[in-house]
Amino acid sequence: MIEQDVSFKNYPTFMQVATACVFWMVHLTCFFVLWVGVSWIAVLICLALYGIRMFAITGGYHRYFSHRSFQTSRSFQFVLALLGCTSAQKGPIWWASHHRHHHKYSDTEYDVHSPKISGLYYAHMGWVLSKQYKHTETALVQDLTKFPELQFLGHLYMLPPILLATATYYLGVGLDNTFPALQTSGPQMLVWGFFVSTVLLYHGTFCINSFTHLIGRQRFHTGDDSCNHWLLALITLGEGWHNNHHRYPGSERQGMYWWEIDITHYGLVALSKLGIVWDLRSYPQIIYAEAASNRLAS
Length: 298
Ligand SMILES: [Zn+2]
Ligand SMILES: [Zn+2]
Fold this sequence. Notes:
mainly alpha, binds zinc ion
């Protein structure tokens, strides 16, 4: 069990300070939009990279690596891991280990990121910067540590984001040379396509750890503070149906009904039609019956 450190008893290590500096520098770099300007193509790439990488986090890091709620090939498993890694949220094994820990100890004193126990800032992003959670709790992820390629990404987790940042820069340079009417440039595409997109992605993902345990409605009595919220579900491609998810984490879909928009689920269904993923697990009938009974009782 990892114990939580919210005190100032332990001095930060060099790596902890360096990680915090990089984290805040990524945020501050967004202000360069004032110098590089804006173009519709840069905003489009920013939103596209947000959507693709959010899908890799929700469909890959969360629903696949953390909960194994569907099956896929080893090669597509690596694609999900690599895309998720470009989000600058470390490797899939680290991510899954802390997420499984969260489900095990939700909103108790052992929870990695409970706003009820540790406050909103710590649950949202303070825990990411804490040296307490630098290491992976390997006992919780033995099904993942057997893959050397996932271990490799865990060691070199900074490489995919750096490669993506470089690619966005050269995309801007290429577009500027080929289609000058687009009025973009390497620096503009780097700032919008990588830095702004990554910061939005950070806080979209962090909302799941913080706000979905603070605002919204509870359909199920899960014993924690997890809630469902439609707006958080839209921002996070379906993860806002968090109370449903805490009731039955093994389901690939998190929205239970057609009106609970779950874009990650639609994407995974499309991939299953193409034969890229399969064995998508859903909520069993007993969970729907429980939801109906709770609705009648309320
Ligand atoms: Zn939760
Ligand atoms: Zn989960």
